Amino acid sequence: MSNNVEEKILHGTTTVGIRARDGIVLCADMRASAGYFIANNNTMKIQKIDQHAGLTLAGGVADAQNIVDILRYHSNLHRVETQNPIPIHSLARLCSLIFHQNRGYPFIADILVGGYDSAGPALFNIDMFGSVEEKSFVTTGSGSPVAYGVLEEEYKDNLSIEDAKKLALTAVKAAIVRNIGTGDGINIATVDKDGFRLLTGEQKKSVINL
Prior knowledge:
This protein is 37% helix and 33% strand. It contains six helices and 13 strands. The relative contact order is 0.23. The model is unreliable at 1-10 (pLDDT under 50).
């Protein structure tokens, strides 16, 4: 693998998405590593797409940023043309289409799209093959086996967004402890009827002890 390709691939990652009864929680660690070399210890793996939607990304940094830009463009276009926010399932389908159109030179990325629209909260996982799955909870990246252990043990239907924040942070924190590729802090965002919000350091500490 060439150095250029290796630099693009974000190996060490744990991202978590949880659908609560009143919103969505997106959570991710902040380390980008190429192999076991820590390329950047403040990587923003959670991105706002629109006022009502966000995503997490694991995989090639440049590829994932490309996808973010395309989704933002179409989301803005939809809002201007219809005066309404784009439905979350439409964003997920659009993301899938982007992967399909690039099969000859595939995007190396694993994306969680989450948000709150007229149908309520919705969460989708789109993998590099373009397959779309709606989820109650999901985790991607090299730390996901550890995070899944926590999520499967603790997730309950009808969680509040407050409980979902605590569970997401606990799952990513567990992955950071166990997985050499994951680390350097955690970012977390919520999307509910009031829109997309990235939590501050103080807000994160008030949920669990990081």
